[in-house]
Specification:
The structure is a single chain. The strands form 3 sheets. A 4-stranded antiparallel beta sheet has the order 1-2-4-3, with no helix packed on it. The chain has a 4-stranded antiparallel beta sheet with strand order 5-12-7-10, with no helix packed on it. The protein contains no helices and 12 strands. The protein folds into 2 domains: 43 residues, no CATH class; 95 residues, Jelly Rolls. The chain is mainly beta and 144 residues long.
């Protein structure tokens, strides 16, 4: 997560083993916060990420996941899996206005993950997932 305060930018979720002059660690060393100014971001390299709205999550049919950020990444892919035969539809909000548009539906079989790479240049602000059945599902994105 991140926030700004008094002109500084703060990031949490930092690997406590990372070495940087911008890191502040808890006394027990189990948590770390990165603090810097906006221009420091250029030194961090290209944004990358791995995560998603569901990871072995119990989901209800027709109930969308929480939105997951999708903007500002060049290469995007997703892995989907389910404990039941299911169709999981990815919906996108292309401009951040809250208008959800179906992107693609994926037919899943138990124990058979499906991988999908988004087309080059594909862009949306947010993405969410909707299952057609109650199941335990995983939808994890890889952004590079």
């Amino acid at each position: 997560d991140f926030c700004s305060h008094n002109g500084l930018l703060f990031f949490t979720g930092i690997d406590a083993e990372t070495e940087s002059d911008h890191l502040f660690r808890s006394a027990d060393g189990k948590a770390a916060v990165w603090a810097g100014v906006i221009d420091d971001l250029w030194q961090l390299g290209k944004p990358r990420g791995l995560g998603g709205p569901w990871k072995d999550s119990k989901v209800k049919a027709g109930v969308p996941s929480d939105p997951y950020l999708m903007t500002a990444y060049d290469k995007k892919s997703v892995e989907l899996s389910s404990t039941e035969a299911a169709a999981i539809t990815l919906e996108v909000d292309v401009d951040g206005t809250g208008l959800w548009i179906p992107y693609q539906s994926f037919s899943l079989q138990p124990g058979e993950p499906v991988n999908h790479s988004f087309p080059e240049g594909f862009s949306a602000y947010w993405v969410r997932a909707v299952s057609d059945v109650d199941t335990t599902a995983t939808v994890q994105f890889r952004y590079e």
